[in-house]
Design goal:
Layout lengths: L3 E5 L4 H12 L3 E8 L7 H12 L3 E6 L22 H4 L11 H16 L3 E3 L15 H14 L1 H4 L6 E3 L7 H10 L24 H13 L11
Parallel strand pairs: 1-2, 1-4, 2-3, 4-5
């Protein structure tokens, strides 16, 4: 019997790579995506395409609305930063940070994992490229895992020790792309852009696009992304 895992899947490069890694490790994978009021909701179609291509067990899309709180360029009428330098990207918490997003997403995944009897949750956070995001740090993942085992019936009764896996947390974007390419991922199915157009083409200028483009270049792998400008 295959072990079960819940994988948070945005439809982006990192989460797709993590999903492929989980499958490669022999997990029966249950993907979870969120329609949370994000301006780049086109990523959900990418998540559907990825889930189908990788042949996962089940894909769930959860509807919540983080526009209620706003305060992020992804969920409010705030301009997405473009053409920023490495220094600018590495300075402070960017306006694309969505308050408590990973905590909210992991809470849903935790409930789903407990219902499924899954002992592992995979998340594609990365501390190198997004060092300004407080919920992408190793200490955050460690703390959340501790909390998860204190807050669930399975954890308290000792039936299952839940693990929060973030296998890309210390990888560069180039390393992530190389891992995924070796696992046969078609990255043309994915979208990383914070501000894509209605056709799903990436802007090529937001922080996420710049990091993605550089990752493919450093990995010496052709970038299959459709950009509005390149």
């Amino acid at each position: 019997m295959l072990k079960k895992a819940v994988v948070l899947l945005s439809g982006g490069l990192d989460s797709t790579t993590v999903l492929a890694m989980a499958r490669d490790e022999g997990y029966d994978t249950y993907a979870m995506s969120f329609r949370y009021g994000q301006r780049h909701a086109v990523e959900l179609q990418c998540a559907k395409n990825v889930a189908k291509a990788l042949g996962i067990k089940h894909h769930t899309i959860v509807d919540i609305d983080l526009r209620t709180f706003g305060a992020s360029a992804l969920t409010a009428n705030i301009e997405v930063p473009k053409d920023r330098s490495d220094t600018e990207m590495g300075n402070g918490i960017p306006i694309t940070y969505v308050p408590a997003r990973n905590t909210i997403f992991l809470s849903y995944a935790l409930a789903y994992a407990e219902v499924l009897g899954a002992d592992t949750i995979f998340i594609g956070v990365n501390a190198l490229d997004y060092s300004g995001y407080p919920d992408c740090r190793p200490e955050y993942i460690k703390a959340y895992q501790t909390m998860a085992n204190l807050a669930t019936q399975t954890g308290v009764e000792g039936k299952t020790e839940l693990k929060i896996r973030a296998p890309l947390i210390d990888k560069t974007k180039a390393e992530i792309i190389q891992i995924g390419t070796a696992l046969g991922i078609d990255y043309s199915l994915t979208l990383s852009c914070y501000d894509p157009d209605a056709e799903g083409r990436a802007c090529g200028r937001c922080d996420s696009c710049l990091l993605r483009k550089r990752g493919f270049k450093e990995a010496d792998i052709p970038d299959p992304t459709r950009y509005m400008c390149y």
